[in-house]
Amino acid sequence: MTAYILGHLNYWLIIGVMMIGMFTMMSSPNLMKKLAGLSVFQTAVILFYVSVGKVEGGTAPIITDVATRYANPLPQVLMLTAIVVGVATMALGFALIIRIKRAYESIEEDEIHQQIQKEELD
Amino acid sequence: MSESLILRVVTKWLVPVILLFALYVQFHGDYSPGGGFQAGVIFSSGFLLYALVYGVDATTRVLPEAVLRIGACLGVLLYGGVGVVSLIRGGTFLNYSVLAETPVAGQHLGIILIELGVGITVACVMLLLFYTFARNIPPQ
Amino acid sequence: MEAYTVLLVVIPLISAPLTALIANRHVAWGLSLLVGAATFVIALMLLQDVITGRVIHYELGGWKPPWGIEYVIDALNALVAVIVTAFALLSVLFGRQSVEREVHDSQLHLFYAAFQLVLLGLLGMALTGDIFNLFVFLEISSLSSYALIAMGHKRQALVASFNYLIAGTLGATFFLLGIGFLYAASGTLNMADIASRFEQYDAMALVITALLFILIGLALKAAAFPLHSWLPDAYTQAPSMVTVFLASTSTKVAVYVLIRCLYHVFPQEYWSQLLLPSFLLLSGCLGMLYGSYKAIQQDSIKRLLAYSSVAQLGYMIVGIGLNNETGLTATVVHMFNHAITKGALFMAAGMVFYRMHTTSLHQLRGAGKTMPWTTGAFVIGGLSLIGVPGTAGFISKWYLLQAALENNNYLVVASLLIASIMAIMYVWKIIEALYFDGEEKLHLHQVPSGQDIVAAMPLATLCCYLLVAACIYFGLYTDLSLDAAKTAAQSLFAGGPAR
């Protein structure tokens, strides 16, 4: 049992990071924190991929004469794409938050919600 | 913007080195780790450092936003263009082998052009993002 | 013919940066129109080519699959490509006037560039045979649609877009996680390759986790109940043209990907022994009841139609959940029929908004006399939404009913009928307000003085009536839509496209 837990330590940590991200995203009424939670969540997935691609005793996947075992390069390449996507998402999210702040004078979800409800009553 | 003399001098020395390293990562990308995305980010970080120390206004005088917008579009067009050229020359989309006389030369040419397109776009977009957000900070 | 396949993605890829570069709103519109028209013609040619059951493979970059990315086109995704491109073309034509009022002048070229990127992403999702490539296209289309929605003229559009961004990214990340598990189990990303070696996998725990993550991610994108909460706000607040395009294409493409994953990535025999079909049925039935129920309560036409979309997506999910060939045919044909129906209705709603500056039903009382054509579109589109015989909506519901009867699933039959009755109620609510309610003069809201309140929109009306005509045409002559759907369903049940 202990060997199982220790042997999969990286996955436990990733699950932890993922849950932290999820929890922040769900529980915080602050839009900025929501976005931060989302980012942490995405990072956990990236860590997961890189972790999957690790080969025991393998070096970086560049062909040399000394090494015989290499880490799987594919997950790393995929994550490069996922990181780009993450950057784009974050940038768009920040831009939206800035405009929301200008439009509503607040980035707290409940305050914005109150204003929306007031608008709809008019 | 920083008034610290040390920061200002060190930045002046560092920026060219960062840019040079970006170019190395860019053009050595087909032999060693690296490539357009990493190079683009490093390249933009050189200007970022400059902007942090000397102010955004000074940086926009070197690289105006309009230029960056054009650069970002041109990078994508270069990428798509290489694909279209390989289509025209009878290969499938992005098949570099048909770009030059021999497939090996074609692969070399293709990957360098593609990575150049990626690098230009990434560098421009990263700086554009920074400008866009930095503009919202009131000057001190 | 194979060489044209990739042009569907390449044309918008080249045109989008050009649009942003030239920065002229007329050129931007012209380029978008050109892209829409060109891709539509190519998609039609592709559909004609594959409707017989042929499968086209296109290897990108000359790399052989499963190492390289390949595009695989069969009847199913050719039909999806036709839907997407047709609506791109129609919404560009429709949007000429309304976008200029709803979006700020300085953003117009970026608006059209983002629109082309959405088209690119949706087409890529439809064509690709590589599951990671699919994720990338999914994100391209999602990110640009967040930007498009945020360009709505009210400040609520920003909040709607932000909530969609959070939900959409969460869905896409789940999907990515699912791909990771699947890759860990199979060692490949090519969909056909994953499916063909399915029996050899020994880590079935990974496979089922992958299935669940992929399913939840896609259900979020497809707005399947109960993961639909982003949809009503996003559709209500987006500019009219964006609503027309997204409502008729984006959720359909997500449903398509769901079908593709369930039949071509995971073998049908595998997931049908799990509880999955029952879950899909439950989600679909609840979705159609809940969506219809909420639609009845709405006052804004756009929001009403958005909730009705949630309900109609429920029909599609039920079709998959019934797990027989008729059900799948119903889902595919409903993707097509619902796209034209909702397209027509959202166009009519967009025109109402353009002319009256409101979509609120209680402010639109008696508008049927001022705008007979626009409100006429509501009537016919509404009939198709209900599923009256002679309209497109009837065909798909008929097939769905047959599929439910084949399985002797009377609960589904009952909820189908109840949802249809509720559809009559919410469509009647629109018609009652437009034609029968009150003789009073229109109470207009926020109309700038001196502006023509019933400004003519010839091009938009034409587009809307094209779709209205299509609603009736595809209700009477089902050759094109139903044949493609049947071919698609057959090949899906036969175990996927031949390699």
TrEMBL record, chain A:
Origin: domain of life: Bacteria
UniProt xrefs under Pfam families: Oxidored_q2
Subcellular location: Cell membrane
Membrane topology designation: Multi-pass membrane protein
Record-annotated membrane-spanning stretches: 6-23, 77-98
Main location (coarse class): membrane
Keywords linked to the UniProt accession: Cell membrane, Membrane, Transmembrane, Transmembrane helix
Family according to the record: Belongs to the CPA3 antiporters (TC 2.A.63) subunit C family.
Name of protein: Cation:proton antiporter subunit C
The species this protein was found in: Salinimonas profundi
UniProtKB/TrEMBL annotation, chain B:
Domain Na+/H+ antiporter MnhB subunit-related protein: 6-127
Bilayer topology annotation: Multi-pass membrane protein
Identification of the protein by name: Na(+)/H(+) antiporter subunit B
Annotated keywords: Cell membrane, Membrane, Transmembrane, Transmembrane helix
Ranges annotated as spanning the membrane: 5-25, 37-54, 66-88, 108-134
Family classification: Belongs to the CPA3 antiporters (TC 2.A.63) subunit B family.
Record localization: Cell membrane
InterPro entries documented for this protein: CPA3_antiporter_subunitB, MnhB
UniProtKB/TrEMBL annotation, chain C:
Keywords, comma-separated and alphabetical: Cell membrane, Membrane, Transmembrane, Transmembrane helix
Pfam families: Proton_antipo_M
Topology in membrane: Multi-pass membrane protein
Subcellular location: Cell membrane; Membrane
Keyword Oxidoreductase (UniProt): no
Transmembrane segments: 6-24, 31-51, 71-95, 107-125, 162-183, 203-220, 241-259, 271-292, 304-323, 335-354, 375-398, 410-431, 452-476
InterPro entries for this protein: CPA3_Na-H_Antiporter_D (IPR050586), ND/Mrp_TM (IPR001750)
Family (UniProt): Belongs to the CPA3 antiporters (TC 2.A.63) subunit D family.
Name under which the protein is recorded: Monovalent cation/H+ antiporter subunit D family protein
UniProt source species: Salinimonas profundi
